[in-house]
């Protein structure tokens, strides 16, 4: 497909931007790259068209979403850098946690669609990723890229935002993370089970309201576990979506813990 060459060039320049170690990152350069790539793709669609339903679905589901998701990521990060408090680390930490909560609400609001995409389903692709439903294109303020009915479908913008916000969450958690008391060398506990298992535990404890009288959120608990157990959970919200989509036993790790503890008690009683 002719669009692949444009995306290959995008990835080369994106890699160059990511390799320049700056704090904050060069979001402006990233935004310009994404705008330019989207413009190129839009012109190609006008000139060459999409010759089949399969080609149209692939374009809006897999190709356009690449620069679109990075545009959302760079734009959001630029906004956070402008909005963050300047009067101290604690205020900044609270700001980043607030943004994480907003991101969590976004993922929860669209969890069914996210599950559909991440499970690799295709049965609604014609509805989501072809231009047959112009009246259902999700509104998006700003650039003409988003509003052009010949360059948008009902859900390509949403999918781009999901992917972009997943990157934003990692940025927020990395930037706003300040380890609590003590240094990593003061304990010898490393998490050696899977990250999926730890995610089950994080969400179970959050819903059990066992920390700070129920006031601790997912970001708080995750950050504490990362520090204490020397582990990274960069996609805890996405992992939770995957757990929810499991068939049969969904909380397998928690059920395994219950089974093992019950068996241990039975063995002790038999002595």
Description:
The chain is mainly alpha-helical and 271 residues long. It folds into 2 domains: 3-175, no CATH class; 184-270, no CATH class. The protein is built from 13 helices and no strands. Helix 1 (3-19) runs antiparallel to helix 2, helix 4 (65-83) crosses helix 9 and helix 10 packs across helix 11.
What would the keywords be for this entry?
RteC protein; mainly alpha; Tet_reg_excision_RteC; single chain; 2 domains; 271 residues
Structural category: mainly alpha
Return Rg in Å.
22 Å
Question: What is the tally of beta strands?
Answer: 0
Give the % helix. 55-70%
Cα-to-Cα separation, first versus last residue: 69 Å
Largest sheet: none
The total count of helices amounts to: 13
Mean pLDDT: 84
Strand content: under 5%
Low-confidence stretches: 141-146, 178-185
Short description:
The protein is an all-alpha fold and about 270 residues long.
Topology at a glance:
Layout (H helix, E strand, L loop, with lengths): L2 H17 L7 H22 L4 H11 L1 H19 L5 H21 L1 H8 L6 H5 L14 H4 L8 H20 L19 H13 L10 H12 L6 H9 L7 H19 L1
Helix pairs in contact: 1-2, 2-4, 4-9, 5-9, 10-11, 10-12
